[in-house]
Design a protein that fits this description.
It is built from 15 helices and 7 strands. It has 442 residues and is an alpha+beta fold.
């Protein structure tokens, strides 16, 4: 949830600084800040092939420019109408404000639903054409006076006015859509679009042009640029398939551990056989299912994907005796989990041996024969169950490095594999075997 809360905290900080008088930057400084953050965000998005954020920043820039360009006419129209006791909705500035209030949320939602394909012609051309057509439509609708077009409204703060109902409806619907997509996919881009949209709505609420609105537009650009950085961090330190922290994150966490701590290594039993028999798509589903159980491990453990079908769990401040109960609960949870299969998508032959299981070639000793029998006898819609073996080790003092603890846990894992699988072995002493289920792959 850090990806969702951090941009909101930044936006709240901007609001506090602007409206409490703690900081009163000049309009020129705010304008430079807006363009500086905008350019930095565009460069980051281009460098990291994030076309969605790139076009979101372009949309933000066009919105700010449209309101600023036509707001001088809106200022004069608003002043005369306010003096007469009414607010006109026909001035160029008000039309630009209304157009931005409808088009900006629409564009953000469209960008959220667009699949990220980098800066290919097929992905860039439609978005570019759409922004060009929208810009032309807004320019034609506003049609500023020649004398008014030469003035900029950046230095003229407009009085806050209630937003039209259509604008509020568009922003609300877009915010709900973006928040729902974030809760479904947990992507920083959706979180960035959501909070940038919120900042833009506040900017429009304060007139869209002037010191305070430009500051909120700058905050929106900063949030979108931060989404690029957060996405790059997730790609580097999180596994895309399982959403768990990756091996790099695990390696970075090891030097920060202080004794006592425990490290458990977990491996899915016969995963290669499962992958070869049922297909790689099913294997990926198994990995996601196991990762979801690991993400809920108790005892203060943090799970990582170590590589392939192997995972690591770090328990800071815990010894082996402290974590055995939690690991046993995790092992039983994995054993009791099932995955529904479609029989038409499964392979019928297995390939190659499990890297941890070198068995005799006899028919009774071959796990592949058991799996083939299961695949032949299972109905068209069956359930697949898997088990896992776990090895755990605890640090012995300051002299033992974290790498040595990992190696000790890995050796304990090999002993668990050799002793029959679906069990927990400690680096100190062997444990009694735990029986596995008769059905499924064990």
């Amino acid at each position: 949830m850090k990806s969702l809360l951090t941009p909101g905290i930044c936006l709240a900080a901007v609001a506090v600084l602007l409206h409490t008088g703690l900081v009163t930057p000049s309009p020129v400084l705010i304008a430079y800040a807006f363009y500086g953050v905008l350019i930095a965000g565009l460069l980051l998005a281009w460098r990291f092939h994030s076309s969605r954020i790139f076009f979101a920043l372009l949309t933000l820039f066009l919105a700010e420019q449209a309101i600023g360009y036509f707001s001088s006419s809106f200022t004069s129209s608003f002043t005369s109408s306010f003096t007469a006791g009414r607010v006109s909705a026909s001035g160029p500035g008000s039309i630009a404000l209304a157009a931005v209030g409808l088009l900006l949320p629409l564009n953000f939602v469209l960008l959220s639903f667009q699949q990220e394909r980098g800066f290919t012609f097929s992905s860039v051309a439609p978005a570019t054409l759409l922004l060009f057509v929208q810009s032309v439509v807004v320019a034609v609708l506003c049609r500023p006076e020649p004398s008014a077009a030469a003035h900029r409204a950046l230095h003229h703060a407009l009085a806050p006015a209630p937003l039209p109902f259509a604008t509020l409806l568009a922003f609300s619907a877009a915010a709900i859509a973006l928040l729902a997509r974030f809760m479904l996919f947990y992507k920083p881009a959706e979180s960035g679009l959501f909070w940038a949209l919120s900042a833009c709505m506040i900017a429009l609420r304060f007139g869209g042009a002037g010191r305070i609105p430009t500051a909120y537009f700058a905050a929106a650009a900063f949030i979108l640029a931060g989404a690029v950085v957060e996405t790059s961090y997730l790609l580097a330190y999180h596994d895309e398939l399982t959403a768990l922290p990756s091996r790099r994150a695990f390696r970075d966490a090891l030097p920060r551990l202080e004794p006592p701590y425990s490290i458990a290594m977990l491996d899915i039993d016969h995963f290669k056989r499962c992958n070869d028999t049922y297909g790689h798509d099913t294997g990926d589903q198994v990995l996601r299912m196991i990762a979801s159980r690991l993400a809920r491990v108790t005892g203060g453990g943090q799970a990582y994907r170590f590589g392939g079908e192997e995972f690591a769990i770090v328990f800071p401040g815990k010894t082996t005796s402290d974590v055995l109960e939690h690991l046993e609960k995790l092992r039983a949870d994995i054993e009791g989990s099932t995955l529904r299969l479609r029989g038409a998508d499964r392979r019928q032959e297995a390939r190659g041996p499990d890297r941890r299981n070198q068995r005799p070639r006899g028919r009774r000793g071959q796990t592949g024969h058991v799996i083939r029998q299961l695949s032949r006898e299972a109905p068209s819609s069956s359930e697949l169950s898997v088990t896992a073996s776990i090895g755990v080790a605890t640090s012995k003092g300051e002299r033992q490095s974290a790498e040595e603890v990992v190696q000790a846990a890995d050796k304990a894992l090999y002993r668990a594999k050799a002793a029959g699988r679906n069990r927990i072995e400690t680096a100190a002493a062997p444990r009694r075997r735990v029986r596995s289920k008769a059905a499924g792959i064990a």
